[in-house]
Amino acid sequence: MSQRVHIAVLPGDGIGPEVVQSALRVMRVVGDRDGFEVETGEHAFGGAAIDLTGEPFPASTKEACLNADAILLGAIGGPKWDGLDASRRPETGLLALRKALGAFANLRPVTVPDALAHLSVLPPDWVAGTDLLVVRELTGGIYFGEPRELGADEAFDTMRYSRLEIERIARVAFEQARQRSRRVTSVDKANVLASSKLWRSTVTKLHRSEYSDIALDHLYVDNAAMQIVRDPQAFDVILTANLFGDILSDLASTLAGSLGVLPSSSLGGATPLFEPVHGSAPDIAGRDEANPVAAILSAAMLLEELGFGSSAQSMRRAVDHVLAAGSLTRDLAPHGVSTSTFTDAVCTALEEASASSTLS
Ligand code: IPM
Ligand code: MN
Questions:
Q1: What is the pTM of this model?
Q2: Assuming Cys at both sites, which of 56, 83, 102, 112 could form a disulfide with 130, CB separation 3.0 to 4.6 Å?
Q3: Residues 62, 188, 189, 331: which is the catalytic one?
Q4: Catalytic residue flag (residue 222)
Q5: Which domain holds residue 303?
């Protein structure tokens, strides 16, 4: 009997629609092979939704997201909407989506495929073998803290965390570490910020009471930025607050040579959400040039989360295979292949892999 996966698709802006289409194509190929059906509904989100309805996160999109098994999001934003006031910007829609779901745990794995190690700004043997996971708190901290105000001569934000918010994200990081190399680095600014002092003591207590099998250390965020570049292989799970995680995950992407290859999941809420870490890249939108790897790997994370672990694994293997064969998009190689050529190659690799496993 065939199973069904119901996905709310939010293509968004810029290259969002192109990379999401790639990911869905690959997912359908693997679904045909492994016996599940990918059912999708597309919903307006971000700048595209502003153009259509005046708001970045319309109520109908919210409802569809709450009713789906999972959400696959492309990217949002672009110069066209930069002039709008804060309440109506695409980014506000993304924050509202995360909050509406309650998706407090943002998982951003950074691995460096062998085929890409030479494309990093760092020496290949330095970055090869990097396998770290940023666990970023996503619905609290300075992104959401009140009070906040933008005045003509003064403006402020509030970085606020409760013990319970810290505990639940720390728990996610420790649980992830148990399935990996059992090391957590908690990143804060406890030498300056009150919210970081609570962060550090809460993580330390939870570790002592429930996760003493995990190696835990703490770094200040400035030092962490340096260490991630200096010795990326030293990291396993990086646990951190919303703002710090935003910054450190972009930094970590330089290890892999391009932001175009990093996927993410946002968990803990009503519906799990999956999206590339990269933005909408309006400069190359609609030109069949975007790197679909981050979107395809986000779709793999989606399948993994819904219990299709081996399908997810074969998607990742197919991507690695195509990269290793030297097929790279233009963010990685000056005369690289198009989005659709790359996607075709991944679909072919999946079909060939299944043909050879049937034979053997
Ligand atoms: C990200 C993005 C968002 C964030 C923006 C677009 C609001 O940079 O997902 O990393 O800051 O969280
Ligand atoms: Mn970011």
A1: 0.96
A2: 112
A3: 189
A4: yes
A5: 1-103+269-360
